[in-house]
Write a structure and sequence with these properties.
alpha+beta; Phosphatase 2c, domain 1; globular
């Protein structure tokens, strides 16, 4: 199997700078989106540093990753742990940078990581950026938003309709770098030729596109067109936030 991808980021119509960052590496099979928090020259530092750290981490441990994927079975859990450790390394680094520089105090970032290698898809998630998978006609959100309203809905403290109208729906409960450690969700699943994966920040999904609107992005004739469609969707609805989109196809 091999992968092809396209990605883009846009500042939007309301923000003066872009705190999103992303990476597409078809050779590694590694795709990352991050949405920084912390204001001017802080959130953008956090997102960039976090993405660059996880890319370097995967490159550094690629031999171990490929070995464990080839072994299969319980060894796949070791791959998830390695990716989680990479996110933790980014978390510790960003927290340390903020501790050393008062101007960066409080900076942090969301992070959604997808690794496609050896017929497997590995995902690591912190925050409210997202990873979707389209397989045939079935669209599935693989990640869970770490937000206050999502927590309240899961606990039965709020209905989904109330969540849509809540002023706190953008409040995240986990972020890379907010503290020196963060809880990371991980998963792995078989990857198949024809699968398409869509990674995005909340600049896109914050407008609550329905399943058909997301599928229209993912099913675009070309990956580049799909990414452009995602950004145009957000900007046509106001572009109140930075928007980043990455689309990957397994061949």
């Amino acid at each position: 199997m091999r992968n092809l991808s396209a990605g883009s980021t846009h500042v939007g119509h309301k923000r003066s700078h872009n705190e999103d960052f992303y990476s597409c590496d078809d050779r590694l099979g590694l795709y990352v989106v991050a949405d920084g928090v912390g204001g001017h020259a802080k959130g953008e530092v956090a997102s960039r540093e976090a993405v660059e750290e996880i890319v370097m981490w995967v490159r550094r441990h690629l031999r171990e990753i490929d070995r464990d994927i080839a072994a299969g079975g319980e060894a796949l859990a070791s791959v998830r742990r390695l990716i989680e450790s990479g996110v933790q390394s980014a978390c510790y680094m960003i927290y340390g940078l903020a501790e050393q520089d008062p101007e960066k105090h409080g900076m942090s970032t969301t992070m959604s990581v997808l690794l496609l290698r050896g017929g497997h898809a590995f995902v690591a998630q912190v925050g409210d950026s997202r990873v979707y998978r389209m397989r045939g006609d079935e669209l599935e959100q693989l990640t869970e938003d770490h937000t206050l309203v999502n927590y309240r809905v899961k606990q039965g403290l709020m209905t989904e309709e109330e969540a849509k109208n809540s002023s706190a729906k953008n409040v995240i409960t986990r972020a890379v770098g907010h503290k020196d450690y963060v809880q990371v969700d991980t998963l792995d699943a078989p990857a198949q030729p024809g699968d398409r994966y869509f990674l995005c920040t909340d600049g896109f999904h914050g407008y609550e596109p329905d399943e058909e609107e997301i599928a229209t992005v993912v099913r675009a004739p070309t990956l580049a067109q799909g990414v452009q469609n995602a950004i145009e969707f957000a900007n046509q609805l106001g572009g109140r936030d930075n928007t980043t989109a990455v689309l990957v196809e397994v061949l």
